[in-house]
Amino acid sequence: MITHERLVQEVSSRARLAGSDDAGRVVKVTLASLTHQLAPELRRRLRQAVPAAERDATVATGPPAGGGATGLLGEVSRYLGTPPERARYLTQAVLSTVCDADPEVGRELRDGLPEEFGELFTAPEPYPERMHAATDAPAPLTPAELERELRRRPRWNGDVHRLTRTVALPADRLPPLLGGVRRAAEELGHRAEHRVTGDGVTFVLHTRSVGGVTPLDLRLADRIDEAVAAVSSGGRPGR
């Protein structure tokens, strides 16, 4: 079993937190929020996998809270007073550390929750140096970073302020596409603006909290590309 000191140290490193006090609070809030989503047996397994200092956070009564991954991230965001995109980053730092320390429990937790929770158990993407000091949210990409990322996403256009992609689709394909994009945005704790055009839809992405394009927008752009591919082939995103 991972020790309290090691758990806090690892989360502090993965999430680029200032010190052990901050990391300890993040760990307890995240574990408590996860516990609220779990069935009783999984709550017991989680309690067995964490150090004694964190076990109080894994005690809950009543049925699972529901609300999916969005509900979990909303609770973390609310109790830590941090933007949703940062709450997701912190949640991944905690849950991936727990899973790495006890892979068997990690598999049980992933298997016992809906698929949308899966990514929360993986380590956050390595963008620690791009965190905005004032808001604790991802900092806008630099022009050079954005240029590099757009080369990997040829269907997207834009600048450091916002990204856009226009998709031409028959009218009957728009509802499943917009539904898939909405679900993807909720899972990421983000949002995508859109404008319906005469022959399709235009998506606009930016992170309001920092006034520019961040790595979170790139992740949502990739999810939109996946949703477009799904409806273009006749399927429904996330189904």
UniProtKB/TrEMBL annotation:
<comment type="similarity">
    <text>Belongs to the pterin-4-alpha-carbinolamine dehydratase family.</text>
</comment>
<protein>
    <recommendedName>
        <fullName>Putative pterin-4-alpha-carbinolamine dehydratase</fullName>
        <ecNumber>4.2.1.96</ecNumber>
    </recommendedName>
</protein>
<dbReference type="InterPro" id="IPR001533">
    <property type="entry name" value="Pterin_deHydtase"/>
</dbReference>
<dbReference type="GO" id="GO:0006729">
    <property type="term" value="P:tetrahydrobiopterin biosynthetic process"/>
</dbReference>
<feature type="region of interest" description="Disordered">
    <location>
        <begin position="49"/>
        <end position="70"/>
    </location>
</feature>
<dbReference type="InterPro" id="IPR036428">
    <property type="entry name" value="PCD_sf"/>
</dbReference>
<keyword id="KW-0456">Lyase</keyword>
<dbReference type="Pfam" id="PF01329">
    <property type="entry name" value="Pterin_4a"/>
</dbReference>
<dbReference type="InterPro" id="IPR018727">
    <property type="entry name" value="DUF2267"/>
</dbReference>
<dbReference type="GO" id="GO:0008124">
    <property type="term" value="F:4-alpha-hydroxytetrahydrobiopterin dehydratase activity"/>
</dbReference>
<dbReference type="Pfam" id="PF10025">
    <property type="entry name" value="DUF2267"/>
</dbReference>
<dbReference type="InterPro" id="IPR038282">
    <property type="entry name" value="DUF2267_sf"/>
</dbReference>
